[in-house]
């Protein structure tokens, strides 16, 4: 009989606990207050990438489906009417998460109170142009933007530079906005990272979501080093190294690298325009993982201010493998670097050092 | 947007079938390359082709954007003849190769008439599965009210777009409401400006497409794409309780609109089916507007058939 009584008691207690839990949950829901909107700046918003990214941001792709946003859109005077057209379309789309749109040609108004800045604005690369061709036009733009951001953005504003030459533009931005913490200024190499995942998934005929931990080292240019030495594929028998499954080191060390490095040019050749869709999507991924954290066991590639890790000169914006937690990135340490990789990593570092001096010479 | 789960929800994997004409084949492949480059977790495959049969094979949802685009200065009727022959041939490919119960959304203008042609030449596709996009106009109307009242667009609901996705559409706020701390209030009451609601507001929504072209030098893309996702999502996943949306659907004679046209009505959706909201009172002013846009649609229907003869 004791057992029965005990069982009855347990049942009653469980029932009461469950009921209580439901009541508390219900009360919490009643008190549910919508989150404060986050202000997101997009420069170059009247252009192709801007047009692709703003609906993604307004749909919650960047910060999650529960985070309201206010968009600050900046572009130059000659495209003010097109910029207003973008604002009109954002109104027309009736996005529930979009709590406001400021469309302006005034950098101060644009930067006011922003929590996240996505710097797309710059001189775009056209078919036939090398990235260095656009350098001089862009460094003066980024020097000016640095000062507006520094003075008017919110504290702890997170900055993502996309416009090429991305790493060097980010460096210029950092140099001329000394009060913005250096860890808050990054550049986009997630596009290259995603491109590398895509190439592996096509080669192995697997879902791209089963491939992870590729690394893009260095410059978002044709000297970048897409490294699969630590990349794995999720299979029914557990995580397997990409090198093992591909079984073609020649392809991995050669054609695969060239394909990823030159993918931007391949897109321009096919579309007659720079990548917009994939760049915008990668930018959302970059910010989302930075703010909301990377999944356990997974890292991503971000162009960040080098601290000397892996023997890379400090004071460059260099793409590293990073994990993110609580709104902070940290470089994945302790990965083995073989001779082949070392040479590649140094080559792209060399290019960045050259770009840095070229940029400074443009500014004199 | 589709690859991110905006159309069918964040848990629904998708395979994209993309179709375009041979002159754009390289650009189309560029789109496929970018989709691969974006490493979308939900995107389980991409078929990029210029072959209508390959494109239609096994599709469950068809978004018909392809057609001759409207350029600055062109009237919608100008593009009619080019488009009706396109839609006649697409009808037959869809009918033969799409999955059973394929849901079709026609976006290319003249949307209603293209959808009608599609329906007429794909008789084995259930008529309830062929719709056209007026959600863009519906969302534009919500946007205009939200700007006028300086409130969040998500607090406004139940506007109606009646009729043709053209400058004769009738954006009707008689049953629209705004969520306030004091409960749902009629839009007319809060705006307190019937002159604006009956004239300028209507005109702004009707001609918004042209205003976008004037500003961007290109037709609406972002907002049209977003509205297309809203249209399909609400159709497939259902409309929220107490809310209706506007869809261009095959008329059954409701509200004395001639049957046999693709006409935009207020609808609710449940279990993958749409249903016209019945019993809404229609005042004299609205009646005239409803009839005007129906007349235009009947004219377009006749014009379309004459193009095909």
Can you summarize this structure?
With 364 residues, chain A is of the alpha/beta class. Chain A has helices at 2-30, 48-58, 80-92, 107-111, 135-152, 166-175, 190-204, 242-246, 249-253, 255-261, 263-271, 277-292, 339-363, and strands at residues 38-43, 69-74, 98-104, 116-119, 158-161, 185-187, 211-212, 215-217, 225-227, 232-235, 238-241, 300-305, 317-325, 328-331. In chain A, helix 2 (48-58) crosses helix 12 (277-292), helix 5 crosses helix 13 and helix 7 (190-204) crosses helix 10 (255-261).
Structural class label of chain B: alpha/beta
- The rounded distance between the terminal residues' Cα atoms of chain B is 39 Å
Low-confidence parts of chain A: none
Strand order in space, largest sheet of chain B: 3-4-5
Sheet bearing the most strands of chain A, described? 6 strands, parallel
Radius of gyration from the alpha-carbon trace of chain B, in angstroms: 19 Å
H/I helix tally of chain A: 13
Q: Helix- and strand-based class of chain A?
A: alpha/beta
Proportion in β-strands of chain B:
15-25%
Q: Given the structure, what is the number of helices of chain B?
A: 10
Q: Report the largest inter-chain contact.
A: A-B, 47 and 46 residues
Could you spell the SSE succession of chain A in H and E letters? HEHEHEHEHEHEHEEEEEHHHHHEEEH
Q: Residue share in helices of chain B?
A: 40-55%
Q: Please report the total strand number of chain A as a whole number.
A: 14
Shape of chain A: globular
Name the helicity range of chain A: 40-55%
Uncertain segments of chain B of ≥5 residues (pLDDT<50)?
A: none
Order of helices and strands of chain B: EHEHEHEHEHEEEEEHHHHEEEH
Strand content of chain A: 15-25%
GO molecular function (chain A): L-malate dehydrogenase (NAD+) activity
Binding site for NAD(+) (chain A): 44-50, 75, 138, 162-164
Enzyme class (chain A): oxidoreductase
Transmembrane segments (chain A): 6-28, 40-58
């Amino acid at each position: 009989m004791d057992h029965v009584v005990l069982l009855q008691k347990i049942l009653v207690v469980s029932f009461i606990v469950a009921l209580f839990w439901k009541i508390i949950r219900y009360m919490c829901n009643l008190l549910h207050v919508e989150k404060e909107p986050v202000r997101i700046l997009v420069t170059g918003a009247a252009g192709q990438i801007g047009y692709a990214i703003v609906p993604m941001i307004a749909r919650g792709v960047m910060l999650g489906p529960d985070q309201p946003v206010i968009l600050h859109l900046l572009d130059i005077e000659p495209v003010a009417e097109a910029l207003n057209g973008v604002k009109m379309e954002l109104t027309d789309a009736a996005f529930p998460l979009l709590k406001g749109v400021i469309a302006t040609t005034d950098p101060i108004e644009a930067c006011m109170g922003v929590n996240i800045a996505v710097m797309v604005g710059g001189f775009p690369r056209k078919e036939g142009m090398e990235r260095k061709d656009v350098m001089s036009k862009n460094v003066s733009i980024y020097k000016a933007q640095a000062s507006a951001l520094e003075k008017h953005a919110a504290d702890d504003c997170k900055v993502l530079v996309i416009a090429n030459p991305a790493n060097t533009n980010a460096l210029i931005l950092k140099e001329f906005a000394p009060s913005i913490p250096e860890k808050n200024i990054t550049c986009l190499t997630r596009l290259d990272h995603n491109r590398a995942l895509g190439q592996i998934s096509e080669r192995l005929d697997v879902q791209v979501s089963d491939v992870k931990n590729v690394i893009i080292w260095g410059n978002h240019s044709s000297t970048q080093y897409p490294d699969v030495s630590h990349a794995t594929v999720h299979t029914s028998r557990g995580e397997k190294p990409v090198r093992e499954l591909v079984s073609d080191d020649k392809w991995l060390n050669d054609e695969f690298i060239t394909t990823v490095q030159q993918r931007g040019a391949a897109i321009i050749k096919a579309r007659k325009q720079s990548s917009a869709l994939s760049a915008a999507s990668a930018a959302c991924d970059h910010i989302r993982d930075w703010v909301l954290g990377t999944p356990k066991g997974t890292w991503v590639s971000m162009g960040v201010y080098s601290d000397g890790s892996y023997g890379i000169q400090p004071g460059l914006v260099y793409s590293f493998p990073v994990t993110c937690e609580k709104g902070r990135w940290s470089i994945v340490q302790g990965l083995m670097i073989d001779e082949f990789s070392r040479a590649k990593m140094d080559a792209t570092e060399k290019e960045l050092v050259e770009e840095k001096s070229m940029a400074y010479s443009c500014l004199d | 947007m589709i690859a991110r789960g905006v159309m069918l929800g964040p848990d629904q994997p998708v395979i994209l079938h993309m179709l375009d004409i041979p002159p754009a084949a390289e650009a189309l492949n560029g789109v496929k390359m970018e989709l691969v480059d974006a490493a979308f977790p939900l995107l389980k495959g991409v078929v990029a082709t210029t072959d209508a049969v390959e494109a239609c094979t096994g599709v469950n949802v068809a978004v018909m954007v392809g057609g001759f685009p409207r350029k600055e200065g062109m009237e919608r009727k100008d593009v009619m003849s080019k488009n009706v022959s396109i839609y006649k041939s697409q009808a037959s490919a869809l009918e033969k190769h799409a999955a059973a119960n394929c849901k079709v959304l026609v976006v290319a203008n003249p949307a209603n008439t293209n959808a009608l042609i599609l329906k007429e030449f794909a008789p084995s596709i259930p008529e309830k599965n062929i719709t056209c996009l007026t959600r863009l106009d519906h969302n534009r109307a919500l946007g205009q009210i939200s700007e006028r009242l300086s409130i969040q667009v998500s607090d406004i609901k139940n506007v109606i777009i009646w009729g043709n996705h053209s400058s004769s559409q009738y954006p009707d706020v008689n049953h629209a409401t705004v969520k306030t701390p004091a409960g749902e209030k009629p839009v007319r009451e809060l705006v307190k400006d019937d002159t604006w609601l009956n004239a300028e507001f209507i005109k702004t929504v009707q001609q918004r497409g042209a205003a976008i072209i004037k500003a961007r030098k290109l037709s609406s893309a972002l907002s049209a794409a977003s509205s297309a996702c809203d249209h399909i999502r609400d159709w497939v996943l259902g409309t929220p309780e107490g809310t209706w949306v506007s869809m261009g659907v095959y008329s059954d004679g409701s509200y004395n609109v001639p049957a046999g046209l693709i006409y935009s009505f207020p609808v609710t959706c449940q279990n993958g089916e749409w249903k016209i909201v019945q019993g809404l009172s229609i005042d004299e002013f609205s009646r005239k507007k409803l009839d005007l846009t129906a007349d235009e649609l009947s004219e377009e229907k006749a014009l379309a058939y004459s193009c095909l003869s």
